[in-house]
Design goal:
The complex is a heterodimer. By secondary structure, chain A is an alpha+beta fold. Chain B is of the alpha+beta class. Chain B has helices at residues 12-23, 28-38, 47-60, 83-108; strands at 26-27, 63-69, 75-81. In chain B, strands 1-3-2 form a three-stranded antiparallel beta sheet. The chains are: A alpha+beta, B alpha+beta. Chain A binds chain B through residues 3-4, 6-8, 11-12, 25-26, 28-30, 32-33, 35-37, 40, 58-61, 64-65, 68-69, 71-74, and chain B through 27-29, 32-33, 46-49, 51-56, 58-61, 67, 70, 74-77, 84.
Chain lengths: 920, 110
């Protein structure tokens, strides 16, 4: 059996690779046979000639025998494919314009899909590059990796004591680690004069982080249980490979060297392997610090032993044979009990209520944590759908190009089929031509995708300063497989349809019309290319779909960027000065805030400037519980308000409108009771129809409860997220520099004119007042833009793809119209000869193109309206049926149709009788 | 020449070729002539089937081919039975015998 297989393979290989000699042998063999046969007949008395003829006749069809013998070699399929491939390459090279058009559009379509898929894969699909990722389980909200909260214990992210309890008591994990954010770190690398301060990305992790994930050290060592023992004892760090390469040029001597992290000397002990970018997908990471170093490095807020300080997320590795469900049951029970032990009374019942509403999340951790996934996930799927439409349009386009070509080759097809070529063989050949195009285009597309994803990421990261995205965009096996599958699907789509069409040749008609070209070629494929027209209609319908979606997204972004958010957004500049690790603390910081506001206010063109704790769109927010006389809360959540501390004239400065009472004034900083301004939502919720002015609101601080008197009510304005409806918000007079966010001073500045013109003057003024401190000055609209960066990304990319599809649809329409026109040259000539008005001929051609466009739009609009409902969650301020964007889409397509058919129409109008005769 | 042509049952052509080759190496024409003569001119192998069959058998490794000089000193492709081919011949011959006996038995039934 084995030897038979071997001989079989040897035989086939020889047949394949020494095809020429095998063919020669077959020839010789058959010739020999016929000669011997002829000799036999001659011996029987026939003449030489007659004998030869007889022998040939007796033998039958020599070519059939050859073909059958070749078949027996078992390599026919492969051979014919190789032959078709050679033929395809030759014929594509002989038509560079056609090939260029097809390859460019295909590469664009495939590249767009590969680019978006790369992002989808990196952010949404790819498992962590660790051994057995399917065993990893997240016990937290996978998106809450950058959060911290003081107050009641939470489960979306947890405190370190709670982590210790769950780790010790669960029965399902071999081990589990915790990871938490660091505050902004100032890191100095190297000593002496060349030491510069930088702010790399780092996280605190427990000592078992690397062992749970199963990530070995690439160089040096990783953390061990020893680093988990004593607070502040092990100032060490493990670097990512990328940071090591980037910052230390991959030098071995970096390991063992010391960098200063917030002035704490930290020894670099190891590097993780290349390709490992941490457990948090989409977020940059440069190094890890042991959890126990947190109090030493963030000296202002030690977080290790406070059960009220939730700030870490947890990941465990399942014991062998334990399922996710079992883990969920065990861990949620363990965690809930651990929380209950330390609660009583109202807090306990509150916790039970919350637990019922939002159970503890125990979810698969194979893909890691990710804030960006939650942020960008939906947008990416929308984009994936958009590029899916693009590739369909591309396929339709290429399909009609191929069809036009096969129609042009109809004579060749006719002849081949007359000579006995089977439909299957012809289809195979056309498919191979398609495949050759698809393969070349995919390679180009992948290169384009590589470039495209980089551009996308740079765009996103430029528009959002706070949440940089870091993902690996190198094409991996999955992206390659996706691209290959897509190329194959495309080849089938645009190869098969025209192939079937073209090989359904009506032999009789086609042969008869060989001499007369008027209608012959056009007949192949039926009538005047209804199939080509169908493709154009499909393209326009798909473009309509995309344009409707794109229009909605554009309108939505306009709303996001320009809607009334309750403040004078177009004339505001936000200033942020980092004061952490400077001499500005306590009263000095308070003084700095006042000084800065005063200085900036004196700049020409500046109307007003006010300081605040969080201010506008700074990314910070504080939640507090309040009690209001006359309001009985049913649940704790009803007592929660969002709180900011603001300086004098803050509301005047930001252009917010006070509906009752007055602004915060200088006297509020000095006198008691302390003044507060509340927003309308808060006033309505707690006071209903009562007058809030003069009422007392008690704010439960971390240590004590303070009473504030309401002095004003401000119209709701958004200060953090344009999409969200404003919460209940209150603004306290910012009189105590020791409370609030101590590490920075923030101003809101109202200017006359374009805020971007004030960025430099304001920066200089602040620099002069507080030399040496890091300063950020941004127009508020830029900050708003940063908070909607995923929308910006979505819109920019969608617009790009809309343009691409419209151009493709225009080309398709142009192609079909031009072809139809050229086929009707003689008809137009005849009309001209009979005295038809050239204008009428042109109108006729235009009319036909417009009819196609209208058909496409009529099909596309209802589908588009249905599809628009799917992206409703991405929209802001527009419904899924939006007349302005809908009419714009239709207008664009109408204009496209006219532009695309203008040239063919003009040509048709100019056809003279003599030209028509020549065409005959 | 009046050939009493019989349609060869499926698979018998291989058997005949193998058998013909079991005596000595032969070229294609020789095989066809030999079978024609031995069958008392009853069996005429259609040339259209002979060469494909030879190529098939060669691929399966039952026969091997080599170029040699024919009786009148012309180059011809000679086929020769391999060991595997000999085994195959035995097996097929036995099958054939069993089949014909069985068919004959059935036909003798009255």
């Amino acid at each position: 059996m084995l030897s038979r297989m071997r001989s079989d393979i040897r035989y086939r290989l020889r047949a394949l690779f020494s095809r020429a000699s095998v063919e020669r042998e077959l020839d010789a063999e058959l010739r020999f046979h016929i000669e011997r046969e002829a000799e036999k007949y001659e011996r029987q008395g026939l003449s030489h000639e007659a004998a030869r003829r007889r022998a040939r006749l007796a033998f039958g069809g020599v070519d059939q025998t050859k073909e059958a013998s070749r078949d027996m070699r078992g390599t026919m399929r492969l051979e014919s494919i190789v032959r078709d491939l050679r033929y395809a390459v030759r014929s594509l090279r002989s038509r560079p314009a056609f090939t260029f058009a097809v390859v460019t559009t295909l590469a664009l379509g495939i590249g767009a899909n590969a680019a978006i898929f790369t992002l989808v894969d990196a952010l949404l699909l790819r498992p962590l590059p660790v051994p057995r990722p399917e065993q990893l389980v997240i016990v937290s909200d996978p998106a809450q990796v950058n959060n911290n909260n003081v107050g009641s214990p939470l489960t979306a992210f947890v405190s370190i004591p709670l982590y210790r309890d769950v780790r010790a008591r669960n029965a399902v994990f071999t081990d589990m680690y915790a990871t938490g954010l660091t505050s902004n770190l100032d890191v100095q690398i190297g000593g002496g004069t060349d030491a510069t301060t930088e702010q790399p990305h780092a996280r605190f992790v427990t000592g078992n982080f690397f062992s749970v994930l199963g990530v070995p050290a690439y160089a040096g060592r990783t953390f061990t249980a020893a680093e988990d023992q004593t607070s502040g004892r092990d100032p060490v760090a493990v670097l990512t490979y990328d940071y090591w390469q980037r910052r230390f040029s991959g030098s071995r001597s970096a390991i063992g060297s010391v960098m200063r992290v917030n002035d704490v000397p930290v020894t670099i002990i190891g590097v993780t392997p290349p390709g490992f970018g941490g457990d948090i997908v989409g977020q940059p990471i440069d190094f890890w610090l042991p959890m126990m170093m947190q109090p030493a490095i963030d000296a202002r807020m030690p977080r290790l032993d406070d059960r009220g300080y939730s700030w870490v997320v947890m990941m465990g590795r399942l014991k062998l044979g334990v399922t996710l469900d079992q883990a969920r049951q065990n861990v949620s029970a363990v965690e809930a009990n651990a929380i209950r032990e330390h609660l009583s009374g109202r807090a306990l019942s509150q916790f039970e209520d919350n637990l019922k509403a939002a159970p503890i999340q125990v979810v698969s951790g194979g893909r890691g944590f990710s804030e960006r996934r939650a942020e960008y996930g939906k947008a990416l799927w929308v984009l994936m759908a958009a590029v899916g439409l693009v590739i369909l349009v591309v396929c339709a386009n290429v399909s009609s190009l191929m069809l036009a070509r096969t129609v042009a080759r109809s004579r060749e097809m006719t002849v081949r089929m007359t000579l006995g070529g089977t439909q299957g063989r012809l289809i195979q050949q056309m498919l191979i031509e398609g495949a050759a195009l698809a393969v070349v285009s995919s390679v180009l597309g992948l290169l384009a995708a590589r470039w495209g994803t980089r551009v996308l990421l740079v765009t996103v990261n430029a528009s959002s300063t706070t949440s940089a995205i870091a993902i690996d965009t190198a094409p991996n096996a999955r992206v390659l497989a996706f691209t290959a599958a897509m190329a194959l699907a495309c080849a089938l789509l645009f190869g098969l349809l025209p192939a079937f069409r073209a090989t359904r040749v009506d032999l009789a008609t086609s042969l008869r019309s060989q001499g007369r070209n008027v209608m012959g070629a056009a007949r192949v494929g039926g009538g005047r290319m209804p199939f080509g027209r169908a493709l154009v209609v499909a393209q326009i319908a798909l473009s309509t779909l995309l344009l409707i979606g794109g229009g909605l997204l554009v309108r939505s972004m306009q709303q996001l960027l320009h809607s009334d958010i309750g403040v004078d957004r177009d004339h505001l500049v936000a200033v942020r000065v980092r004061t952490s690790r400077s001499q500005y603390v306590g009263a000095l910081l308070g003084q700095l805030r006042r000084d800065l506001a005063e200085r900036v206010r004196q700049l020409p063109g500046v109307d007003a400037a006010a300081f605040a704790d969080h201010g506008l769109f700074s990314g910070g927010a504080s939640g507090y519980f309040v009690s209001v006389p006359g309001f009985v809360a049913q649940a704790d959540s009803e007592r929660q308000v969002s709180l900011d501390r603001v300086g004098p004239s803050f509301f005047h400065a930001i252009g917010a409108r006070l509906v009752r009472g007055r602004d915060i004034e200088s006297r509020d900083l000095e006198t008691r009771p302390l003044g507060t301004v509340i927003n309308e939502t808060m006033a309505k919720r707690y006071f209903g129809d009562r007058d809030p002015l003069g009422a007392t609101v008690r704010v439960e601080g971390v240590k004590d409860t303070l009473a504030y008197t309401v002095v004003g009510v401000v119209r709701d304005f958004q200060s953090a997220d344009v999409r969200e409806k404003p919460h209940r918000e209150m603004y306290l007079a910012f009189n105590d520099a020791n409370v609030g966010n101590g590490g920075q001073a923030k101003l809101s500045v109202h200017v006359r004119g374009d805020p971007s013109n004030f960025v430099e003057p304001i920066r200089r003024a602040v620099q002069a007042a507080a030399p040496g401190l890091p300063i950020h000055v941004d127009p508020v609209n830029d900050l708003v833009r940063g908070t909607v960066s995923q929308d910006v990304l979505l819109v920019q990319v969608t617009i790009f793809f809309c343009i691409v599809t419209v151009v493709l649809a225009a080309l398709g329409l142009y192609g079909v119209t031009a072809y139809a026109t050229s086929q009707r040259t003689s008809e137009f000539g005849l009309r001209a000869a009979l005295g038809a008005d050239p204008g009428r001929v042109a109108r006729m051609v235009l009319g036909e193109a417009v009819r196609l466009a209208i058909t496409g739009v009529v099909i596309g609009v209802p589908i588009g309206l249905v599809a628009a409902r799917l992206i409703r969650s991405q929209l802001f301020g527009v419904g899924s049926v939006d007349l302005p964007s809908l009419s714009a889409a239709i207008a664009v397509l109408g204009a496209t149709a006219v532009v695309a058919s203008y040239l063919p129409a003009r040509r048709a109008a100019r056809v003279g009788p003599s030209e028509a005769l020549r065409a005959e | 020449m009046t050939d009493l042509r019989l349609d060869l049952p499926q698979g018998t052509l291989d058997l005949l070729i193998l058998k013909a080759l079991s005596l000595e190496p032969m070229h294609g024409w020789g095989i066809s002539e030999r079978i024609h003569q031995v069958s008392r001119e009853t069996l005429q192998i259609p040339q259209g089937s002979l060469y494909p069959a030879l190529h098939r058998l060669e691929r399966r490794g039952w026969i091997s081919a080599s170029w040699g000089a024919s009786d009148n000193n012309r180059r011809a492709k000679y086929y020769e039975l391999t060991r595997a081919g000999r085994k195959q011949l035995e097996a097929e011959a036995q099958d054939w015998a069993r089949l014909t006996t069985a068919v004959a038995l059935v036909l003798r039934m009255s």
